[in-house]
Automatic annotation (TrEMBL):
Substrate binds at I133, V134, S135, G136, G137, D168, G181, D185, N277. Its main location: cytoplasm. It comes from the Bacteria. Required for the formation of a threonylcarbamoyl group on adenosine at position 37 (t(6)A37) in tRNAs that read codons beginning with adenine. Is involved in the transfer of the threonylcarbamoyl moiety of threonylcarbamoyl-AMP (TC-AMP) to the N6 group of A37, together with TsaE and TsaB. TsaD likely plays a direct catalytic role in this reaction. This is tRNA N6-adenosine threonylcarbamoyltransferase. It is an enzyme of class 2 (transferase). Keywords: Acyltransferase, Cytoplasm, Iron, Metal-binding, Transferase, tRNA processing. It catalyses: L-threonylcarbamoyladenylate + adenosine(37) in tRNA = N(6)-L-threonylcarbamoyladenosine(37) in tRNA + AMP + H(+). HAMAP family: TsaD (MF_01445). Binds 1 Fe(2+) ion per subunit.
Amino acid sequence: PVVLGIESSCDETGAGLVRDGRLLGHALASSMDEHARFGGVVPEIAARAHLHSFGPVVRQALDSAGLRMSDIGAVAVTTGPGLSGALQVGLAGAKGLAYALDVPLYGVHHLAGHVAADTLEHGPLPDPCVVLIVSGGHTSLLLVRDLARDPIVHLGETVDDAAGECFDKVARVFGLPYPGGPAIDRVAREGDRRAVALPRPMTGSRDAPYAFSFSGLKTAAARWAEQRRAEGGELPVADGAASLQEAVADVLTRKALAACRDHGVSTLVVVGGVAANSRVRELAEQRCRTAGITLRVPPLRLCTDNGAMIAAVGDLLVRAGAEPAPMDVSIDPSAPLEYAALNPVASRG
Ligand code: ATP
Ligand code: MG
Ligand code: FE
């Protein structure tokens, strides 16, 4: 069947249509501009924007696929983690559609969506693979087997800020526009990545080899900016951005490769918004090539939040014969990533 995927956990309203691992069409609306003057996502504004965009985005996704409402055979929706009000709008809409069309509903974990995004471009994930999730709210190294069936093994995660959060916060200190990650990436092209000596947090940590910390790095970058400003003259933002990007990319790829090596895994998948970062991609490519590891990174449009990635998980669940979610299913704003879905297929054990 054609699976409609709905994403509304943060500031993007996304709808995607997937059948048999293939992306048929998708559409996206973002309320990013409405949050810009507040310097971060305002939950109430995000929820209202989802309410506004839900219908049009579903319609656009269908149009882009050349499909009709009646072609939808299942609905998958993000139930968490994310902003409560935002999630509720998406789930309510998805329930309405599933009810009206009399098709099964599947509850999907947002981060499993980020992982599955890559399957739409590169086909089924090898079992096992190491996945580096780097986004606005998460930085984790995972050991992933069968997304529809197996529990996800957490190798390590950030003890404080996420990598995307670090980019966003430092960008603000540097006076760059919101959202900070893409802005840092843009100006870093003109900068020298060796200009500022920034720390590589937790790279020496033997008892937590796959854990990350970005709050110290953020502070170090902010302190550098403060000092340079106190010395007078213009802040060399490009050098600061390039150096910060280098530090983040270095730590992320070093630990991801160590995880592959230590677990005898030959495929690394890098997903989430920060996987869009040009230096993260470049360094991951270089280091994987040297180590003989296959690297998979989804294309930019599938890295950041979208509905196609949720449809991709729904499609895996449908094909694996998972139980649909009950119609009284609710959201879980802080859902831990244990399984990709609310109702995974019973594990092979
Ligand atoms: P989560 O998925 O953890 O709930 P989220 O949905 O807000 O968080 P994503 O949409 O996956 O996160 O990613 C957004 C993050 O990615 C932001 O922090 C943004 O700054 C960052 N980002 C996007 N593009 C780039 C880029 N080119 N370089 C660095 N960071 C980027
Ligand atoms: Mg976003
Ligand atoms: Fe996300």
